[in-house]
Design goal:
The chain has 717 residues and is α+β, with helices and mostly antiparallel strands. The protein has 18 helices and 21 strands. It starts with 8 loop residues before the first helix and ends in a 22-residue tail after the last strand. Bound molecules: zinc ion. Zinc ion (ZN) binds next to helix 11.
């Protein structure tokens, strides 16, 4: 599959831009023989490097179209096939190559020595007894450096690989027994010369093959969950404990005998007792996530066997990014919560859509330290090659930019879409080729269709484009979902809403100053406090302004708005069930309670504080005139009594400790829809009534900075 990268972010990784270049008709994967099938592609890439003549319809001129291959996106076995580097055995890391720190531990290989990446004088280097190194040795080694493409090419050129023979079982290399240099058919730098080196620029590319964050995250998450819940993929078995004793490390975890003569495995810091597992799984079972966030996790919980089953890659992704640390905290299920929270925050920062290059060194130091801390707690068997690869991910971000343009998610999704074309199981390739061609043809035609729904203008899942956004004050216009009913707002709510709008309108600032000066002059004999002034505003300002409405000059745009605001809110409005704005979907709590998803959580940031709440009602109100406004009426948690913050960033809230009931005139239950950010809550299993906050990011919203013109459609290029 080819992905053209000179497209804006909202088109770049979309299926409509993918080009299916190669389809290999085989029952099993081609393995190292993939190069044979890649030859036509490489030929075309060579041609594109020198350039082909193309016609630019926009300028009406011919030009030389050139394109290089930037990198490949592949899973880890795919990495080996495309790069010709080995991703198995002791030298499995395609970046550390023959310096991959690895050793045999019991029946497994462990990828060790994360202390090599620490500064030379770091105290951890001489605390051998706390880490996983055999016999608790200290670590003074240096971290391996990334080899250049030229280095790899020089080495791979020595390898003799015969294509079409990869069905024969690969020769097992024995450690410590090197073949004679001249006759070896596999160098330390891999199994073959990668065909991509035929491209003259390939050896100079800094990042040739991407380590796929999607699969790495999935594997790390499976390692953790498997070990915590002692599931099939547990990295803590009886054999591992035996191997610990053989290595003379972590003596507190060696197998021992209990009083009645049986063998027992002492619990490690991460071990969960039966009740702890149940609490943890209970939290996961009760979770309701926002619409479009991820699949329903509760269906993956098997309470009977105390296991998580059928977790997909994306489930592992949301677990690692957000839910795991919160669910562990909400169930107080293990002693390594903070450590796992650090790992989770690493993944979150790594996968964020915008990254500041200056933060990357800090992120790298963070993951090195986190891995060292993990080494203190977990057994060597936990450190599979996938865990080792974490250490290289930040460098790849430095070289290649944000992860979302370099990982397998869009590709895996598209591959499964291609599979859906298969109607004739005897000839799947034919079906895929036909299906793709048909789609490509339709896609091509639809570029030239205007005013019709095509693949290029289908609405997003969280589409909030509306035809008349300027009618709404404070950018509060969005898309209404569900039923709407006409209502008459009670007097108090009307005043609360009106006051909220006035206090946030810059156009009214002058009037407010005038009002306060007038009031102060009337109260010259009494000392005026701040609370007096806010009481005046609450009780009198609206009425005072309304009396002025006839004197306001409405010939300018500003004046028109001022006049409308002064006139006051219309008491009739619309009550909405749901609303989509800024890429978020909000539903009122009574609608939400019938659903398996959670869309009423709201967060608003004001004056450096974050306020958490739940959307109770959504109103669309209007001023006499042309201006409308959409307001959310919410229950707000008291920021002093109802919010607890954890040292590493987690927040807990309690909805029995509200800021106010909203029933008094001075209460302030409203916010503009445009201010709202979405969160969702996870119930705590131990402290009843407390909810853990998870922040939710909008989908398909791109931060383009201020200087770029926003151009939505693909156009006809
Ligand atoms: Zn490595």
């Amino acid at each position: 599959m080819l992905i053209p990268y000179n497209l804006p972010p909202w088109l770049c990784m979309k299926p409509s831009s993918f080009i299916l270049s190669t389809l290999i008709p085989r029952k099993s994967g081609p393995g190292n023989d993939i190069d044979v099938y890649l030859q036509p592609l490489v030929q075309e890439l060579k041609l594109l490097w020198t350039g082909v003549e193309a016609f630019d319809a926009f300028s009406g001129e011919k030009f030389n179209l050139r394109a290089p291959l930037l990198w490949t996106i592949n899973d880890f076995p795919g990495y080996a096939m495309l790069s010709g580097l080995s991703t198995k055995g002791y030298n499995a890391c395609p970046i550390c190559l023959d310096s991959t720190p690895s050793d045999r531990f019991g029946s497994k290989i462990w990828y060790c020595s994360y202390r090599k990446w620490l500064p030379a004088d770091h105290p951890y280097r001489c605390q051998g007894d706390k880490f996983c190194e055999k016999f608790g040795t200290n670590e003074w080694g240096k971290a391996p450096s990334r080899p250049s493409g030229t280095d790899i090419l020089r080495q791979q050129e020595k390898v003799k690989h015969v294509y079409g023979k990869s069905k024969a079982p690969p020769k097992k290399r024995q450690r410590g027994h090197d073949d004679d240099d001249d006759v070896q058919d596999e160098s330390d730098f891999g199994t073959k010369r990668s065909i991509f080196f035929d491209l003259v620029y390939w050896e100079h590319n800094l990042l040739r093959h991407n380590l796929d964050v999607m699969h790495i995250e999935k594997n790390v998450s499976e390692n953790i969950l498997g070990t915590l819940l002692s599931m099939d993929k547990s990295r803590d078995s009886r054999n591992d404990r035996e191997a610990l004793e053989a290595w003379r490390i972590k003596s507190h975890l060696w197998l021992s005998t209990n009083p009645n003569g049986g063998e027992c495995m002492p619990p490690a810091s991460y071990s969960m007792s039966t009740e702890e597992k149940e609490r943890f799984l209970n939290v996961l079972q009760k979770i309701k996530v926002p619409d479009g966030y991820g699949s329903n996790l509760s269906s993956c919980v098997n309470m009977k066997q105390r296991k998580l089953i059928n977790l997909k890659s994306h489930d592992n992704h949301v677990l690692m990014q957000d839910i795991l640390p919160v669910a562990l905290r909400a169930s107080k299920a293990t002693k390594v919560i903070d450590l796992l929270a650090r790992l989770s925050s690493f993944f979150k920062k790594l996968c964020s859509t915008t990254i500041d290059p200056d933060d990357l060194d800090g992120l790298q130091n963070e993951i090195i330290l986190t891995l060292c801390e993990l080494e203190k707690e977990f057994l060597p068997s936990f450190f599979t090659i996938m865990v080792h690869l974490l250490i290289h991910l930040v460098e790849e971000v430095k070289l290649g930019g944000p992860v979302q343009y370099r990982w397998m998610y869009p590709i895996e999704r598209y591959l499964s879409h291609l599979k859906s074309h298969v109607t004739n199981k005897a000839q799947p390739e034919g079906s895929i080729a036909e299906g793709f061609l048909l789609e490509e043809t339709i896609r091509f035609c639809s570029r030239y269709l205007q005013g019709v729904k095509t693949i290029f203008n289908i609405p997003k899942r969280m589409d909030d484009d509306i035809p008349n956004p300027n009618d709404y004050l404070f950018n509060s216009g969005g898309r209404v979902i569900g039923k709407e009913v006409s209502i008459r707002l009670d007097d108090k709510s009307l005043k609360q809403a009106h006051r909220y709008i006035l206090l946030h309108s810059d156009e009214i600032k002058g009037d407010m100053d005038e009002f306060l000066t007038e009031k102060r002059q009337m109260n010259l004999q009494n000392p005026v406090t701040e609370s007096d002034e806010s009481n005046w505003i609450i009780n009198e300002f609206g009425g005072w302004l309304q009396n002025k409405v006839h004197y306001i000059d409405a010939t300018t745009e500003d004046g028109k708005l001022r006049k409308a605001l002064a006139g006051g809110l219309h008491s009739y409005g619309r009550k909405l069930k749901g609303y989509i704005i800024n890429g978020y979907k909000f539903l009122s709590t009574d609608r939400d309670s019938h659903l398996l998803t959670q869309n009423s959580g709201i967060m608003v940031e004001a004056d450096g504080d974050a306020y958490y709440g739940k959307v109770k009602d959504i109103y669309e109100l209007d001023y006499y005139g042309d201006y409308k406004v959409v307001l959310f009426r919410c229950d707000w948690v008291d920021i002093h009594r109802g919010v607890k913050a954890y040292p590493n960033g987690g927040v807990c809230v309690n909805f029995s400790k509200l800021m106010h009931s909203g029933r008094l005139l001075q209460d302030d239950p409203f916010v503009f829809s445009s201010q709202a950010k979405k969160v969702f809550y996870i119930e705590d299993e131990i402290q009843k009534g407390w909810l853990h906050v998870v922040k939710n990011k909008p989908r398909d919203v791109f931060d383009l900075g201020d200087s770029l013109p926003v151009e939505e459609e693909g156009g006809t290029n």
